[in-house]
Design a protein that fits this description.
Oligomer: single chain
Largest sheet: 5 strands, parallel
Radius of gyration: 22 Å
Number of helices: 13
CATH topology of the largest domain: FAD/NAD(P)-binding domain
CATH architecture of the largest domain: 3-Layer(bba) Sandwich
Number of domains: 3
Strand content: 15-25%
Distance between the termini: 31 Å
Bound molecules: flavin-adenine dinucleotide
Length: 446
């Protein structure tokens, strides 16, 4: 008996490495696939705007272009009002998407931690400055201090001189012994070793300080200098930009809205990347921070499983699925070892909790300083009483910060997941009120 399900409709949310692989694998396995991404381009955080694109990015993006997979760019999923249905904002208009199976590949964002001056103009994320440089920000002759934590610091610092920038120092908060552990972890992904050696060569002329972190950004209308601290000293470096982030935070909002179980900050999945919510799969950074290779391996497994796993959980899994998934499962296992090393290599040092002063802004959408959180007992309490996380980003920045600073997990994800026009809310309310109401539109053009 064939295990192809040609009529199975699969929606993949996120067109980064995980989502691209999931969409293409599901299509190859016979499903009808719609891939959506909030951004105007496919490629996710790592490949978007890369000119020229890397070989693997060029291959996947080319396959997407040549395939019948429907790609909806600029399409943000904002609600999941009923099982099998999503509400999106597409070019400012409501759009309903129906699915038999859904793959979440929503990626991660950078983690920002507050310290005095972190909201000054020209203090940016590490990935943020890279994206701006790719987009044409003129960095010629500019001094960029790169600080925070994680391997992204190194790859971005190495790329900045290509745009004409100077990098006076790279300040990594993790200790040298942790960094050695990270380097040894590369044995799990031997393909990365030549890349790492090349990176080390490019970083050679730059000054790297382990166990060092920013304590204050100086400036009036914009950044002029940053003070760094290591175990035995503090010093100030003049600069035009500070690129600063402390690792990544997974984008869990949609998974939580759909009722997927989240444990220790990540979506729980089984061997086939199935979440605990029926017909919902998840791949990439939301299941654990591990880089593009892990995202692609998980994406391929999720796409194949979404297309080929039988509806009845008790039915045997076909040999076809096993054989197609086998290389991806093996690659995924290696990537998971590497992800564990990554997690253990960049623990945030407790001293970072002492950086914000009482007057330091914690929620920059709603201008909430740390002192205003005194007396609040939880994220929810601070939201209700102090408007923490009530602004445009809906806690995407301050949520991770207060979790680290105050131990408050973010609670109660609610639709819409992003700010939307009122007509979109009205459409969602109408659909919820009338279960029998056929949706105004499913896939566009149908
Ligand atoms: C700012 C930034 C820069 C980075 N730069 C690099 C780098 O230079 N090199 C490197 O090795 N790694 C980089 N990374 C890490 C890299 O993103 C991951 O290692 C890996 O590529 C993750 O792949 P992914 O498919 O899981 O997620 P992503 O590549 O993050 O893709 C997720 C996609 O989902 C979309 N999305 C999320 N929510 C919704 C929604 N509700 N509706 C519609 N679309 C949605 C997003 O727009 C995004 O395109 C960066 C990460 C960030 C956050």
């Amino acid at each position: 008996m064939s295990d192809l399900h040609p009529s199975r409709e699969i929606v993949v949310v996120g067109a980064g490495p995980a989502g691209l692989q999931a969409a293409l694998a599901a299509h190859d396995a016979g499903a009808r696939v719609t891939l959506v991404d909030a951004s105007p381009e496919a490629g996710g955080q790592i490949w978007r705007g890369g000119h020229p694109p890397s070989r693997i990015a060029a291959r996947l993006l080319g396959r997407l272009r040549d395939s019948p997979v429907q790609f909806l760019r600029g399409c943000t999923i904002v609600d999941a009002p009923k099982p099998g249905q999503l509400l999106a904002m597409h070019d400012g208009n409501p759009l309903w998407l129906s699915y038999h199976r859904l793959v979440l590949a929503t990626g991660a964002r950078e983690r920002f931690l507050p310290f005095p001056g972190w909201t000054l103009p020209n203090v940016l994320g590490v990935g943020g400055i890279q994206a701006l440089a790719k987009g044409g920000l003129d960095l010629a002759g500019k001094r960029v201090v790169v600080a925070g934590s994680g391997p992204l610091l190194l790859s971005v610092a190495a790329s900045l001189p290509l745009y004409g920038a100077q990098v006076p120092v790279i300040a990594e908060q993790a200790s040298l012994s942790h960094l050695v552990r990270f380097a040894l972890g590369l044995r799990y992904l031997p393909g990365k070793i030549p890349e790492a050696l090349q990176l080390a060569w490019r970083l050679q002329p730059l000054r790297f300080q382990a166990a060092t972190y920013p304590v204050r950004a100086h400036g009036d209308m914009r950044l002029t200098a940053v003070t760094l601290r290591s175990a035995d000293r503090e010093w100030t470096v003049d600069c035009d930009y500070l690129a600063c982030a402390f690792g990544f935070v997974p984008n869990l909002e949609l998974a939580e809205l759909l009722g997927c179980t989240v444990r220790e900050g990540f979506v729980v999945v089984d061997n086939w990347q199935q979440t605990t919510a029926p017909d919902v799969y998840c791949a990439g950074e939301p299941t654990g921070i591990g880089g593009a290779e892990k995202a692609m391996a998980e994406g391929a497994v999720a796409g194949l499983a979404a297309a080929l796993l039988p509806e009845d959980a008790n039915s045997p899994v076909s040999r076809n699925l096993h054989s197609q998934a086998a290389p991806h499962l093996a690659r995924r296992a290696r990537c998971h070892h590497f992800a564990q090393v990554l997690e253990r290599s960049f623990p945030l040092r407790p001293e970072l909790r002492d950086l914000p002063l009482p007057e330091t802004t914690v929620c920059r959408c709603e201008d909430v300083p740390l002192i205003h959180l005194e007396g609040c007992s939880s994220w929810r309490d601070a939201k209700l009483q102090r408007r923490l996380g009530m602004g445009h980003c809906q806690g995407r920045v301050c949520g991770a910060a207060t979790e680290f600073l105050l131990g408050w997990p973010m609670q109660s994800v609610r639709p819409p997941l992003s700010p939307v026009p009122v007509r979109l809310l009205a459409a969602a309310a109408l659909a919820k009120a009338d279960d029998s109401n056929p949706h105004p539109q499913t896939r566009p053009g149908q």
